[in-house]
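Recall from the previous lesson that a structure prediction takes nothing but the amino acid sequence as input. Here we apply that procedure to Aquaporin-3 from Eolophus roseicapilla. The sequence below is the only information supplied.
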Amino acid sequence: MGTASFLESARALLHIQNQLVRECLAELLAVLVLILITLSGSAQMVTSSESKGNILTAYLAGALAVMVSIYIAGGVSGAHLNPAFSLAMCLLEQFPWWKLPIFVAVQTLGAFISAGAVYAVYYDAIHHYSNGTLAASGPRETASIFATYPADYLSLSNGFLDQVMATALLIVGILAILDTRNKGVPKGLEPVAVALLVFSIEVSMGSNCSCPMNPARDFGPRLFTYVAGWGTEVFRWVKGRG
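The prediction returns the following tokens.
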């Protein structure tokens, strides 16, 4: 009786009634999981010199992370996970504009925290691989674990077009999957369909910019690398690898 009473009291104390707070916490947790898995897939690939992973496994990790994250937050916040998707919902009048900056801030914060967690988990591996130097360019760079960078040949205009096309394709695909008037995805399998969509975009449009498609996913970890010691070079457009 005492234990049950304590658990009930704790549950009542921890229960959050404010809907906005619940949505923000759901977005935060979902983005934490999304970026933790996504960046860990990249970290395993880079620090093992592709002996324990490659670009395909990294893309697969990111796509499956999307699926898990939507299952986590879908019923509470809608699992936006992405400022671009939140903006699209505002433009379609399916999400209030006043919530947009709040969601963007929460999504970016979640990505920043996740980058720190990945750095902690792979701390020894990163420093062993890079010989103790946190570099954003060169043969032993590790900044690409956390953020996406353009290929050396890519121009600014081509990079802009690449990201507009990939992100637009992502948004259109998600809207089609969620449209109840369309040929519906079996209920409960929407996250799986979105994950397959993400994976298809990654494996077909990833060579130019590594296909970020998510401003929070890129900026949050990029900001972390700047704070953690990679320096201002992480904000450069062109990143040489040789």
